[in-house]
Amino acid sequence: MRLSTRVLFLLAAMVSVESVVAQAAVKLPSVIGSHMVLQRNQPVPVWGWAAEGEDVTVRFGGKTLAAKADKTGRWQVTLPKLAANAQPQAMVIEDSSGSRIELTDILVGDVWFCTGPSNIFWPVSKCDNAKEEIRQATFPRIRFFTVAKKTADKPQNDCVGSWFGCSPRTVGDVSGIGYFFSRRLHQDLDVPVGLLQSFWGGSRVEAWTSKEALESQPALKPILEWWDKAFADYDVDRVNTDYQQQLERWKQLVAVAKSQGKKAPARPTKPQDPRTSQHRPASLYNGMIAPLIPFRIRGVISYQGLGNLYWAEHSRVLMSTMIRDWRSRWGQGAFAFGMVQPAPFPCARWPKQQEDAYALQRESQVLILNEFPKTGIALTMDIDALDELHFTNKQIVGKRMAQWALATEYRKKVPYAGPVFESLTIENDKARIRFAHTTKGLSTSDGRAPTHFTIAGKDKTFYPATAVIDGKTVLVHSKQVTNPVAVRFAWSDTAVPNLVNSDGLPASLFRTDVPPLRKPQSK
Questions:
Q1: Taking a C-beta distance cutoff of 8 angstroms, is the pair 159, 287 a contact?
Q2: Rounded (10°) CA dihedral 326, 329, 334, 339
Q3: Which of 416, 442, 469 is where one domain is finished?
Q4: Could you tell me which residues are beta bridge partners of residue 433?
Q5: Which of 13, 26, 276, 385 has a CA that sits 20 to 30 A from residue 514's CA?
Q6: Which residues form the domain of 142?
């Protein structure tokens, strides 16, 4: 049957109207959704998009707030400070065209951002005692939001992800450190806990930092120039030709190995285009952090992996730039920032510019404590898993990170820090080391003398030293050094020292011959 011109016109008009309505429909970022946890005791931004000029109202917790979509379609309201609430609530968002969204099962508590490379997203299902941990993971007031992996050259408005509750069905794929951290906070504070998760294996600090922040630091110029050169030098045709030649040689070698009954060589890996690399500066910030801002958080727990060993001498500047950048962009002041100190591990096969790169990287975190307020470290010097890049005892790391948060952010009386170098004094042929966080005193985990101390004179040649605990200090000496000037402790990739405080928490590696830092900044 043929349709009249009038009917066709009406059908086209209906499609056009439906298209306009669809375009005008109010929209939310993925991080604002059902089952989410909102941050307590802070003003809470709620934002989204609608057609330009649309009036948008948000109703939550007995409050109604209004906003108008700007020229870009973005709108935002700010909920007043919310008290912790474990009773599920609904949020309704409507615009003046009649578009409506209802979110359900919303709690109010504390939200933490968990981020970094593979060791921090190592899942619960691969941690120690995984089956029992999963079986007992019924905590409906703990919620998770996992950002889907995405790189971008410009900051993105949104990401892919959704909120879900903690249960034996869901917890297996969650960050082990993040889960054990959240569980301890939830149990001790009795409030809902939300965990934003944003991970990428092998990721580097410069990828998680905005381009503007990186460019503002002259000390980071070598890193940016290295990437600029990599972009300029990359020849797609040449790389593809070389790779095809490698494949042909590999196929020949496989055939020879097969004829001789030997194991075939590994297939060559196709070179990655640096222009699309997940390691390139700001790429993960743009794709996996920018979409979360300004969702309110209580703080951050992070991990720095081996990807930054090549730029170890820039590690402190990279970390401080990232912390300053995030605090500035979230616009909520100096939120808490916790760091996991990477555990002892042989790093010989990772590219680096100096032998002590791993020590320099781990030392940079300790120096950050003196540069910024509200920062902390979960020390791992006692984790003796040298044959495992992804050590499986994430429980102890989550516990220590949680104790740091409970003690410093929530003012609970729990032990949270191991001994950290404070000062050096020379007493004839001996060096006396004083520490912060000794609590009632120092001891060793095995009852033996402290290990992994070295000492040097003016020639800066370090010799193995004898160390003796003297109250809350350690006396260090060597027959080969009569006039000591410097001491180092556990200054290697693989040292697993035995020095602990009275709480049983391990001491951090240190060197006394490092330039002093200024006092903590306000941000």
A1: yes
A2: -10
A3: 416
A4: 424, 474
A5: 385
A6: 21-228+278-416
Distance CA 51, CA 477 (A): 73
Structure tokens at 107: 């709690």
Concatenating the DSSP letter of every residue in 335-353 gives -EEEEEPPPP---TTS--S
CA distance 434 to 474: 7
Contact of 37 with 111, CB cutoff 8 Å = yes
Per the structure, the count of domains in the chain is: 3
224 & 239 share domain = no
Are 160 and 258 contained in the same domain?
Answer: no
CB atoms within 10 A of CB 471: 9
Q: Are 326 and 300 contacting, i.e. CB atoms less than 8 angstroms apart?
A: yes
In the numeric block, the tokens 């007995």 are attached to 62
d(C-alpha 420, C-alpha 363), whole Å: 11
Phi then psi for residue 464, to 5 deg, are -55, 140
Q: Would you give the DSSP letter of residue 137? A: -
Please name which of 479, 470, 477, 478 lies closest in space to residue 499, comparing C-alpha atoms. Answer: 470
CA distance 192 to 200: 26
Residues 157 and 32 sit within 8 Å (Cβ to Cβ): no
End-to-end alpha carbon distance in the chain: 72
Strand pairing category for 139-146 and 163-166: antiparallel
Q: Which of 45-59, 66-80, 255-269 has the lowest mean pLDDT?
A: 255-269
CA distance 523 to 521: 5
8 Å CB contact between 364 and 316? yes
CATH number at residue 341: 3.40.50.1110
Other Cβ atoms less than 10 A from the Cβ of 437: the count is: 17
Same domain, 151 and 75: yes
CA distance 255 to 262: 10
- Mean pLDDT within 328-341: 96
Residue at 5 is within a domain? no
Residue 373 and residue 485 in contact, taking contact as beta carbons nearer than 8 Å: no
CB atoms within 10 A of CB 121: 24
Structure tokens at 396: 């102890």
Nearest alpha carbon to residue 295 among 237, 248, 335, 253: 335
The two three-digit tokens of residue 123, written as one number: 């899942």
Note the pLDDT tens digit of each residue in 374-405. Answer: 999 999 999 999 999 899 999 999 999 999 99
C-beta of residue 510 within 8 angstroms of C-beta of residue 379: no
Q: Of 506, 323, 501, 336, which Cα lies nearest the Cα of 408?
A: 336
**Mean pLDDT on 58-75:** 96
- Neighbouring residues of 162: CB distance < 8 A, sequence distance ≥ 6: 30, 33, 35, 145
The H-or-E segment that residue 430 falls in is strand 430-436
What is the 8-class DSSP label of residue 482? Answer: S
- What span, in angstroms and rounded, lies between the C-alpha atoms of 1 and 360? 79
Q: Is 22's pLDDT higher than 80?
A: no
| Cis, peptide link before residue 419, omega less than 30° from 0 | no
